[in-house]
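All the exercises in this workshop are built on plain-text protein records. The record below serves as our worked example for the rest of this section.
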Amino acid sequence: MIHMIQNAKDQVLALTNAAYEAAVAAGKLPADVAVRANVEIPKDTANGDYTTTFALAAAKDMKTSPREIAGVLLENMNLEGSYFASAEIAGAGFLNFRLAEKWYRDVLAAVESEGEAYGRSDTLKGQRIMVEFVSANPTGPMHMGNARGGALGDCLASVLDAAGYDVWREFYINDAGNQIEKFGLSLEVRYLQLFLGDQAPEMPEDAYHGDDIREHARHYADEHGDTLVALPSDQRRKALVAYALPLNIEKMKADLLKYRIEYDQWFRESSLHDDGEVREVLDLLGQKGLTYEKDGALWYKASENGGEKDEVLVRANGTPTYFAADIAYHRNKFRRGFDTCIDVWGADHHGHVARMKGAMDAVGLDGSKLQVVLIQLVRLMRDGEVVRMSKRSGKAIQLADLLDEVPVDAARFFFNLREANSRMDFDLDLAVEQSASNPVYYVQYAHARICSLFRNLQSEGVTLRPCSPEELSLLSAPEEKELIRHLAAYPGEIVAAAKDYDPARMTRYCMDLASLFHKFYNACRVKGEEERLLQARLSLCAAARYTLKNALILLKIDAPESM
């Protein structure tokens, strides 16, 4: 894997350090000065392609002005064989480096040789990472938070994989505990109301009142009649849950598959109870003196382990809480050999982060290896107004409703436009608009435009051929060089997105790449140019097409060849 930008950055440091050593050997600079210098890419390339702060960082220890140090470094610097054509002093003592033609040629050669693999690397290899995301409550439909969490979590897993990690995607099914008891109660009431009329119980205020509960009860009644009416309540609820819960889970799987999300495992909370792992955690915390009894319940000393207050582990009725199962689940994750576990949670779980990290420490694991990405709320907008109801159903908009109204490409792209911790407005009108104002359309159009160029030229008998170094050196226009620099940045963007847990970097990269391609294409004629320059520019177009397609595939977004 040729990582052109990192190689160039490393070269700047290597060249500067070599110049410093040569200056020391010549008696021009003091020896044994440890310098922590940055290498950066200037915003304005008129100031050079790379700059280092070596001279500024060394000035205090060397007791010499930065510009004087920079001057000595330049006198002792050998750029021969490097990616750089020149270096110069700027400002207070910055050293600016300008790339040679060889670097630009090597970028295009790297994209061409790696093709569909361009951008992928083993930079971060050696660790197994689990990304657990969505994990929606299976007692009802998935909402907008799940929609954003799904797109973001899946794309995060993709960039982690592309950067070299061994990645595992997981969905945690909360099929035990309070919410399942409430699910059973809600189904029971709606079922009995179908047969008992005025004698039927009323739905408790804190039960599930959605139409999906009515539909499950009615469908069960259509299939089995009143067979449950005479049974004890616990048996009736168990039968209704056993009927409805698998249907909800299958609907989730179908909706997420439509959203292009597939998991390595759907992990059931109930298995933690069945396998005794919840009991193990309770015993372990008790042995460590981290539990106590109060008001008939078992409590965990969370306040001594990162939490704001102590938490109930087992209710007075003997039922373990969701928190107890959650500790067992995260312990299970690490015991399966994952080096890092990433949870994608809604922002309302903010207070749970420190609690869970502390709980991992409490059970003898390393809480710092649990990472949590918090997702802020989404507002759906139409005609500048907030939308809360689906046009189709007249109910609160769910993931399935959104995917009926908006293309999957747009949904996945839009939800990754902003960092997870920022609130976002999702413009339903813009998501279906076929114009440059729609960011996903704009990006896809750039790919289609390149494909169209190749088709048109091929119809005239012109096909892409390998270019010589001399021909590639013809790519000297500012727009050409700017585009090549951006192509070179792609592998580094993937690594940065993986390190920062921020897949939004990839959508921004795609938008910038599309913009730079359109800028190049409008400024630099391809068709009709002299053959050598035409072929060089076709090589650049091909590299842009490969890179744009690779980035879109990473996001599981289509790269159309015509629009």
The chain has 20 helices and 15 strands. The chain has a mean pLDDT of 94. The first strand starts at residue 39 and ends at 40. The CA atoms of residues 195 and 230 lie 11 Å apart.
